[in-house]
């Protein structure tokens, strides 16, 4: 069975909870190799998504993701705002007007999101950014679709696990994009905050299923 | 953390209210999204000059709104670039036929958010252009970084572009001048002690009692290198060498020397550093034709300074000297 | 201690060299004894207005030398009032027939050293008068203290007396105006974190993480009372109550509100506090007719603010608005 | 036997050494209830006295003390500069043109110094200032003159001991003059820096004999 607009709204609600819980952790990660605002930024954005969705859940999964996208764009700022905003916007667009999102649609949406982030931010694998969580997530989602077919839960779970692993792998990387790149070699040895938040969000979405 | 605030999440808005109350003759403030607008905007027939970025660097940018400088400033959350709709609101409030120049500091977030705002403005049929300033010599300008950061040079750029717009230059000319300034301005910063972001509550980085962060950014991002604390003479020499040799500035050049406090360094130390810098430049045969000394682009209460050099020509000097009337910079009025 | 200095014993001199280099059009600096003199002094026929005190409070006093404000400033060692011969040198460089007004902050050291200088000037046949400013409501004005301290009101006094002298008022008039200002200006300060004096090397006092020194002086002298840290709204209310109820300022009064940073408090907090103060005064029916917001009388890098209220009349407003051109305060020029 | 100009120059040299040694202590005392500059101020002044006397020792004890006075006035600043300056000036004047200073002259000079400080600073006994070291010092010096006659060493030793005791007694006092008075009751429990420096100087002069 696929996800309805209500399901996605619920999942975003869950993601907001997880981000709030990890606000300090994300701040601390960003404090180490950035400017210390990532947790605050993401929390501000997801809190805004929840209160927007409380007013009214739009019709269809694509419309919900689009509302999340515009909310992130207008509330987050920083690097993460436009990048996550683009990710959600591209994912929304990829869904079109479907009533329910199935497993393959999840994989397609994730790939669209990744492509959007890369189009905006120009980061490639190994640059120590959220892209390093998204690339393995997309690959795992697509593989899961190949194996399990249409099961949203399995696709999301695979993506989340891969994103978590991908985020961990950023620890050893030297940043080449974003604020951490100013540190050069000194950026190695730290987890990238954006990769971590990507893994947290995907984890929450998978859990919410 | 001890700060004179009520709640970290309302600091920017509450501070802007104080700015509006203090300078009602110069600016008006819109909340949500937050925008600081020149009191008499839109000024008909004039190119609008707009800048913005994370808060916490005051007086940059909101303190530079007014006659002869910015038409609007877009303050984001503390150390967080503002969102496109805020930039769009600034454009709407200030921009007419003559178009607008957006002055963007080179940080991924600033570039992306202003880029989107520019697209929105273009969709509204407005002639809005952007320039990206990246004057910080501390960062290697390579494919291995997000590029050089925009720092002290931003203040000088805003003054000069604002003066050009005020004297009636077209957007083409204002943009060309802005790119000229960006091409010939260079900066370096150091930190002696870290700032504390209100919503974080602990210092942005930890420095040992005898350490200096050399090449610090203005967001408390760690710099490029940690050095041992050293006397002012050695530190200023090290800073100036980095700046002078980068462009490079040469014997015979006329420059503007901008000695900036990052916030927590008091005037007594700032002028001391400035005096050393003036002497060292004279020794190199570089003429300091204009100077600016003070806390103009800060990082909350961070202790440290930055040095900025801008190569001048007669037109830039005329634009620098032109009247300006803003909360933080005023002369000729 | 980390500071941008070479040697604690040469900080003041080296800093003054930087000031002279940065503002050669406005001031000239003499070393040993250190005096900062208006570039075009002595201005013939004009009453000279002179002030001074320990260094470390910049821009007070040296940043206020120039047209429409001070003819000379006498900077002592850090937090130490200057010696009589330094004051005497300032008098000699600026004072003619029209005489001079010495603006003295009420501290034992300042009063005694300026007193001696005044005697020396009188012996030279010059008409030199002194006024002592004591606007700090934190200190009880009783025989059990050295009297109230001179704090934020000093900046306003220097501007107004300087403007009166510039427009050609006689020494009698300038002195009378100065006494009027002293009679109707009141201030209070708070500290969130202590400054560090270069030759001491450790903070001037130790404050707990949740403590505020209420009624702090500008030399890092401990204040009158230690309170728990509290939100800006409560703190500004407490400060304003102390100031308003002292004179008292009343419904219908027109005032100048001066919101001052002690150095380490950044503009974002300062404007936030200013906004609150404006609102609270409006609620009391007190009209804020003029305002000054910024770090104008500081205590090195001390974190904290002070609030000063001056009751205005039309003449004081005219004098406040009159052109001023100094390193730190400039308008109308 | 009395003190010559050379003796007094030597004693001032010794006092400068003691002040330099106790510079930090005086700073710390002043940091607690003042503004932390007393040690620096006194050290600057006495260092200047030494270097002035190195150039040339003037003729006669009075002239030496007068040179010390003007040096203190022009080098120390703060409250201590004019107060110590006045003290030395009045002491110098009390000596007139004598070639040697004997015991009674020491007592007379100390009384003149005390009166000068009180005339300038208006402090009385118990205000927690240098006056609280000087008052007992003068009394002890005068008593010593009554007992021992003309012995400079004994007079100075008595004055120094009384000054030390007087300084100690400032600990319990609540300041009513100078910067410490702003503290009100909170000034109690601390030694007054000016009383301490007075005791140190008298101690050094006595030792130098
Ligand atoms: N060019 C980029 N492409 C992809 N992700 C990026 C890029 N630049 C930065 N990021 C991500 O953004 C995160 C930082 O976000 P945030 O702290 O909110 O913004 P800012 O750096 O503006 O303070 C980084 O950890 C990184 O994952
Ligand atoms: N009115 C006074 N009469 C006598 N002594 C005083 C008076 N005021 C201050 N003092 C002395 O001066 C000392 C402080 O000297 P110092 O720290 O050098 O000057 P300041 O207080 O100006 O910083 C005090 O400890 C006290 O002994
Ligand atoms: Mg960040
Ligand atoms: Mg940021
Ligand atoms: Mg002092
Ligand atoms: Mg002192």
Automatic annotation (TrEMBL), chains A, D:
Residues 6-207 form the DhaL domain. PROSITE patterns: DHAL (PS51480). Keywords: Kinase, Transferase. It holds the Pfam family Dak2. GO terms for biological process: glycerol catabolic process. GO terms for cellular component: cytosol. GO terms for molecular function: glycerone kinase activity. It comes from the Bacteria. NCBIfam families: dha_L_ycgS. This is Dihydroxyacetone kinase subunit L. It comes from Amycolatopsis taiwanensis.
Automatic annotation (TrEMBL), chains B, C:
It comes from Amycolatopsis taiwanensis. The keyword ATP-binding applies. Keywords: ATP-binding, Kinase, Nucleotide-binding, Transferase. It holds the Pfam family Dak1. GO terms for molecular function: ATP binding; glycerone kinase activity. One of its GO terms (biological process) is glycerol catabolic process. This is Dihydroxyacetone kinase subunit DhaK. InterPro entries: DhaK_1 (IPR012736), DhaK_dom (IPR004006), Dihydroxyacetone_Kinase (IPR050861). One of its GO terms (cellular component) is cytosol. Residues 7-331 form the DhaK domain. The keyword Amino-acid biosynthesis does not apply.
